[in-house]
Specification:
Elements: E1 9-14, E2 37-43, E3 47-49, E4 52-54, E5 63-66, E6 72-76, E7 79-85, E8 89-93
Antiparallel strand pairs: 1-2, 1-7, 2-5, 3-4, 5-8, 6-7
Length: about 100
Amino acid sequence: MDVKPLGDRLLVEVLDAEEKSKGGIVLPDTAKEKPQQGKVLAVGSGKYVDGKLLPLDVKKGDVVLYGKYSGTELKMDDRQLLMLKEEDVLAIIVK
């Protein structure tokens, strides 16, 4: 199913949390932090400011860092997705 976010919203695929700690200890599901990184699958057209449409800074394919409890969780085609507003994105991860 194709989804096109509206306005300044982004559709993000949640990237899995780390399975091991930095010391190499395998973490059970109950000890894992909620993921805060995701890959942008689709973006809206932008937001209107003073009657002008401004494009979003985030684009399809970017890996982003977002707030821990941001957005609306969705499950589509057995994938964990998140619908975010651009203002919920803290940073774009540059590799």
